Amino acid sequence: MTLSYPKTAAQQASAQNRIGRFYITRELGRGSTGTVYLAHDPVIDREVAIKTFSSDLSPFEKKHHQQQLINEARAAGRLSHTNIVTIYEASSEGNATYIAMEYLQGRELNRLLDRGYQFSNEDIAVVIRKIAKALDYAHKAGVIHRVIKPANIFMVGNLRPKIVDFGIARAPNRTANAASEAQDNIEQPFTIFDDNIIGTPNYMSPEQAQGRDADERTDIYSLGAVMYEMLVLRKPFQAAGTDELLQLIINKSPTAPHEVNSEVPRELSKIVMKAMHKRPEKRYQTAAEMGRDLKNFIAKEWQSSRQKNKNLVGKQPLLTKKRSEIKKIILLAGSAAAGIALIFTFRTFL
Fold first, then answer.
1. Distance in angstroms (rounded) separating the CA atoms of residues 39 and 42
2. Order of strands, sheet of 160-163, starting from the edge strand that comes earlier in the sequence
3. Longest dimension (CA), the chain
4. Helix (H) or strand (E) run with residue 246 in it
5. How far apart are CA 112 and CA 252, in angstroms?
6. Mutual orientation of helices 121-140 and 318-336 as an angle, nearest 10°?
7. Which of 67, 153, 179, 259 is a Cys-bridge partner for 109, taking CB atoms 3.0 to 4.6 Å apart?
């Protein structure tokens, strides 16, 4: 039996407790442009998160967000990586468009940083390396995320990050040709550059800030900016307004992390500064290159830790202790804020 949905998916969920084949369990989050539900997939017998649109959007807004949703499904849906959110299905029924994705439980990285949690240097290297490996995988598949920031890094389990929100990612075959892409920009009141500016320009690359074409190296710059904040608990640039901030991103190099915090190893500081170089050709040319430098740092730290603890019986290694601490914080935060696990899906959606 095929169900039709003349109203929005959100309205149908309320009336019939169902979207497509998915049975709604409860609402996870609601914003100005839509709602995210926890749902059950009866075919696979698993929990999923369903992202839908609000019925109050203007036609222009609906078209814009529908295009983002479709692009997210196209970009992330072609990827299968342990550190990238899994997209199961995207569909349009009547006037409703929705996307079904992996249901994550944990906490966004920005929320942990806002709480003042200080990761150890070793743990920062571990987390950033995992993200770098995921980005390298995505880049090899032709997908550029373009909005790497703490709010789009979801921490689940034991130091396991998940890259989320591919709404404005650039993916292969996003448009048939340059002419159709230009036509898309004429028809809608939003542009890719506007999407990057709105909300969080702090992690944008200089080429994004200038409105120029961005390749894989823009994700590397943004990942360097995320690593910077994890190391020193402050963003690379501070400014009173967006225009001033963009000028700093374009023209000024940030103070090296080890100069902000003397406890930051120079090796990690060097990795950040190379990733955030103003000139793309001076950065790491691939996320894999950045990952290798982080791997070398981690190996040295593990070796040093083993040397310090080789004569201690029954002592837990420092890195393991730190991992246990962050796991507890994530689990406690998740318990204290049940139902918000998938609000991250509104980062560009709201």
1. 10
2. 107-108, 153-156, 160-163
3. 70
4. helix 242-251
5. 28
6. 70
7. 153
Q: Which residue's entry shows tokens 């979801």?
A: 154
Measured distance CA(87)–CA(164) in Å, rounded: 10
Q: Say what the pLDDT of residue 3 is.
A: 41
Helix (H, G, I), strand (E, B) or coil at 96: strand
Task: Give the number of other CB atoms < 10 A from CB of residue 306.
Answer: 10
Mean pLDDT by runs of 10 across the 350 residues of the chain is: 46 65 90 82 94 72 75 83 92 78 92 94 97 97 94 90 87 48 35 41 94 93 98 94 93 96 97 97 98 97 80 56 59 49 42
Q: Can you list the domains of the chain with their CATH numbers?
A: 9-104+340-346 (3.30.200.20), 108-331 (1.10.510.10)
DSSP 106: S
Listing from the earlier edge strand, what are the strands of the sheet with 87-93?
A: 18-19, 22-31, 34-41, 46-53, 96-102, 87-93
Provide the b/e sequence for 319-334 (b: ≥16 CB within 10 Å). Answer: beebbeebbeebeebb
- Helix, coil or strand: residue 103: coil
What's 170-223 look like in SS3?
ECCCCCCCHHHHHHHHHHCCCCHHHHHHCCCHHHCCHHHHCCCCCCHHHHHHHH
Task: Specify the pTM.
Answer: 0.78
* Contacts of 294 by beta carbon, 8 Å cutoff, 6+ apart: 125, 128, 129, 132, 271
Contact present, 145 and 163 (Cβ < 8 Å)? yes
Give the residue carrying structure tokens 């910077």: 228
Pick the closest to residue 98 from 37, 56, 46, 182 (CA basis).
37
